[in-house]
């Protein structure tokens, strides 16, 4: 029996992603979860959703694991997004805001760190093989002055360089606190199962988007991975996983 590769994430993961800037472009190329499942000889369940934040990513995996036979699941990958996004449910459907109207960058980072740990605990409870990866830069877009999203720019409601939220006044001080909070979690996280930990190059880690040069993205305007970029993401994960025997 082929096992399931269960994945959740944001637009870098969404198998139905389309470009706001190039809506006529055929973007139906296989995304990294489907590519990885093929390499691992697994069936893919891809819960990725464009615009999703980390509450959705964690909750969608939690809901699936608690509602399906776990014996069929061979590997679970949480591909985390930006920390400032807000997820919520309305009439049963998941929706999101680009920025959570409550809290600040420190509370959002702490909440995401709790999702990392809660995901790990969930996987250990059900004895599931798992990996975590920070797909997007978690907080620098916010610290540097958050720009408007692709949808607003593509629709002409904003210019590509328009600032939605002003930059943090003392970025080095904010980074120092954020890095301290992140590194504390080395006490409780299994970092061997977290690709790129500790998720920021200034403290020895990285996030996946940092590994994609411009040739692996749709365009300078649209920074999403193109077909080759999706293959690159799959290869990074596959090489990190090492030899695996699916059953």
Could you explain how this protein is built, in words?
The chain has one domain (4-144, 175-241): SGNH hydrolase (Rossmann fold). It has 247 residues and is of the alpha/beta class. The N and C termini lie close together (6 Å). The chain has a five-stranded parallel beta sheet, sandwiched between helices. The protein is globular. It is 33% helix and 14% strand. Helix 1 (32-40) crosses helix 7 and helix 2 (54-67) runs parallel beside helix 3.
Percentage beta strand = 5-15%
User: How many whole angstroms does the radius of gyration measure?
Assistant: 18 Å
- The helix content, as a percent range, equals 25-40%
Note poorly predicted spans.
none
Count of all domains: 1
Per DSSP E runs of 2 or more residues, the count of β-strands stands at 7
Mean pLDDT: 96
The first-level CATH class name:
Alpha Beta
Q: What structural class do the secondary elements suggest?
A: alpha/beta
Shape: globular
Mind telling me the CATH superfamily name? SGNH hydrolase
- The helix tally amounts to 7
Proper CATH architecture:
3-Layer(aba) Sandwich
Order of helical and strand elements:
EHEHEEEHEHHHEH
How would you summarize this macromolecular structure in one to three sentences?
The protein has 7 helices and 7 strands, in the order E-H-E-H-E-E-E-H-E-H-H-H-E-H. The radius of gyration is 18 Å and the shape is globular.
């Amino acid at each position: 029996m082929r096992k399931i590769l269960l994945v959740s994430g944001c637009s870098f993961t969404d198998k139905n992603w389309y470009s706001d800037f190039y809506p006529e472009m055929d973007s139906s190329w296989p995304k990294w979860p489907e590519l990885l499942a093929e390499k691992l000889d697994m069936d893919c369940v891809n819960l990725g959703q464009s615009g999703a934040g980390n509450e959705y990513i964690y909750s969608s995996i939690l809901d699936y694991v608690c509602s399906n036979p776990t014996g069929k699941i061979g590997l679970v990958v949480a591909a985390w997004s930006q920390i400032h996004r807000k997820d919520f449910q309305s009439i049963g459907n998941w929706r999101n805001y680009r920025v959570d109207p409550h809290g600040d960058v420190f509370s959002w980072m702490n909440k995401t760190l709790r999702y990392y740990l809660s995901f790990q605990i969930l996987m250990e409870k059900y004895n599931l093989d798992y990996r975590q990866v920070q797909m997007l830069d978690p907080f620098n877009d916010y610290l540097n002055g958050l720009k408007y999203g692709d949808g607003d720019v593509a629709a002409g409601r904003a210019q590509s360089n328009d600032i939605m939220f002003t930059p943090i006044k003392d970025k080095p001080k904010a980074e120092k606190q954020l890095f301290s909070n992140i590194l504390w979690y080395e006490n409780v996280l299994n970092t061997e199962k977290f690709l790129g930990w500790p998720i920021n190059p200034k403290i020895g880690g990285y996030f996946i988007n940092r590994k994609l040069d411009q040739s692996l993205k749709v365009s300078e305007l649209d920074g999403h991975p193109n077909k080759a970029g999706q293959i690159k993401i799959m290869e990074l994960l596959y090489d990190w996983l090492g030899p695996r025997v699916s059953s």
